[in-house]
Amino acid sequence: MRSPFLNGRVGAGSARQRLRQKPPSPPFSLPQLLQPVGVDAFFSRYYEREALVIQRERPGYYDGLLSLQTLDDLIGGTALSSDEIIVADHSRNIQPADYQRDDESVDAVRVHRLFDEGATITLRQLQRRVPALAKLCRSVEQRLSCACQTNVYFTPANAQGFEIHHDTHDVFILQLAGSKRWQTYEPGLRLPLPGQRYFWNTLSAGPPVSAFTLNPGDLFYCPRGIPHDAQSAQEASVHISLGARVSTWAELMVEILADVALRDPAFRASLPPDFASRDVPAQVMDTKLRDLYARLQQQARPHHVLGQLAERFVDDHPAQLSGQAATLRQAVSLTLESTVGVRPGLIYRIFEHRGKVTLLCNSRQIAMPGYAAPALSFALTSESFRIRNLPGSLTDSGKIVLVRRLMQEGAIISVTAERG
After folding, report:
1. SS3 letters across 36-83
2. 324-418: which CATH topology?
3. For residue 349, what pLDDT band results from cuts at 50, 70 and 90?
4. CATH C-level class of 13-245
5. What are phi and psi of 134, to 5 degrees?
6. DSSP type of residue 420
7. Which of 56, 75, 132, 133 has the smallest C-beta neighbourhood within 10 Å, fewest atoms?
8. What pTM, to 2 d.p., does this model score?
9. Which residues does residue 237 pair with via DSSP β-bridges, in sequence order?
């Protein structure tokens, strides 16, 4: 069966050519994603507050992030798992068995047939397979300190994949090909937690509060909790959905409580043995909880726990080490005139203690003398610099030793070689 994605039903020929162009350099980033809205303006006005729609009239704006050929190859030429692809149609119930073989592998022919019949195809977690999307996710992860993922949605012409719903994570919608008509509704639940999904029996969408069309190159930022739906126009639609799963104050509070409970047996004591069969007297409950609240307030270590969460996040997000073999070769012949810079997308943490500075990145802790802190901080916040210009009290040979070590650890790259 000929692919429905490359036979003229997904956008016009010019759109197909745009999606086949080379990836942009440097990698697509959060500032580019939000342009012309600045990152600071986004955080102060829109983030977690209200939807943002950017209609650019620049069809090729996302050139290089993804191509239709790549998507077609993924569906028809790779062994996708049932977790990586979902086929849905708001007007009927499609089950995984409808597009899987007996061994639960994905049957591309049946997927294409369902698409022809009006179903939307969702490819999940594509940042694991497409480097350009992985780099985009990393740029957002750097600024939001949270895990991100990209799903891609193929919707046939004049079709709708999903009913009205809200997401429990923030979403950035990037329209690649075709057009899609979106509607948003008044939130019934602001900033839902992961388990607080959209339930028809408790939430009523009401009339739309906004309606707009996304064309290629446009962006829609939808904070979690805002109900929405979408329908494709006269041609099939392809869009990327970048989801950001943020950490919340509630999670921090739970971690603080857990930290105290590990150290104070009062929190580990059992509830009254008969609490399930009879009410605990209000005076007993109030007295006990007042004691526990006081203990929690006295023993809480919020900065310590937040630091642990930060270290866990850094550990879970090692550098994307494209070109590391070349970096190691270049590290051998460094001079004071060598131009280097921080690796794009590097997620790291620096802390100082007892005369030493420690760099946490790539699941490693790298300890250095405290006097190296100014040079280390400068190196990891500079896109491009000459080794000679590192600040602080390091000797010339010490500067080269520091940069060489950072290159070996995947934190620094040669700008000329890797940024072009």
Report:
1. CCCHHHHHHHHCCCCCEEECCCCCCCCCCCCCHHHHHHHHHHCCCCCC
2. Outer Surface Protein A; domain 3 (3.90.930)
3. very high
4. mainly beta
5. -60, -40
6. -
7. 56
8. 0.88
9. 155
